[in-house]
Fold this protein.
Amino acid sequence: MADLLEWRRHWKPDLKAAKWAPCRYKEKTLLVKSHFADETYQIMVYDGLRMWQEQCDKEQFQQRTKTLNPNIEAPLGTLLHHLQDSVSEENMSHSISKLTQKEDAVTIHMATQLEGALPFTWQFHLKEALHEESAEHLTTPLMSMVAELLRRQKELFRILKRKDAEIDDYKASGAKVSRKHLETTPFDDKIFINNMNESKEFGVLVDPNQSTSAFQESGQDLYRQIKMRDAFNNAQLIQEDSDEEYEDDLSGVGDAPTAPSGPSWRKRLPPSLVEAAQTGTNQSPDRVSPKKSPRMSSPGSSTQDTEMMRRQALEKKLAEEQTKLKAKKKKKKLF
């Protein structure tokens, strides 16, 4: 949870996390979502059958502004902010003046006013979105929303049954309801579901024109929470893959084979030093300690001993780094 909160502070929402907002145009109900940046915008529209989208960059926006509004001179950011406000849930239905559709394109004509009652017109030129984009922005999140709502329903049923058990305990102790109309019957989840299926409201919501009610305020918030958690999960997977690649690279350095151009470090050393490295002592059982021996060590012995120590220190450091990486990875997977 701590990792999620920290990640959320630095997370920058994109079009995927933008909420779907219902919009009415004549007898047609649309779902609209958009994302505006400093110099660009993205917009998606779902008409109940097909999904349409447009991505407009700085050059396209400026050119279209000159074509549709030749007498208007205003900063790019000001016009983008005005357009963003025009496609909001509160204003979109009132801002659409015309909607034309061809086989593979939809054009939404907007008629709005800038400050000072200055007319500003705009046209969104949308192309049909790919099936993968439709699934990513609508189908898959809706399935996740249904799954999450069912999980919450199950939890609420569990709480209600515990409340009934608590009330029964109070009644067994002699407690009574002070007002008769406040008394309730024990909750039965099967009866509740049957009553909901037979209710008049359920029949109304099945109407395709009412399906956009799933994206009222609470539905919009759930959609955004699902897309945010999905982005967090993807970020975690990317981080884990990056850690694994780094660990593989590091282990490859420690296990890299010795170059064939020369002998190994152990083969360069005299037998006495090789035996000392294996036993962890500075002397062999069959040899006299250098301190007690009157003989002088050879000039190259000191250099070889230094190289051996340096080699051992390097191997120890690599092993410690690998241990730290594994511990860090295990710690991440706990959350």
User: Anything to note?
Assistant: The beta strands are 21-25, 28-36, 41-46, 51-56, 96-101, 105-114, 118-128. The mean pLDDT is 81. The radius of gyration is 35 Å. Residues 153 and 159 are 10 Å apart (CA to CA).
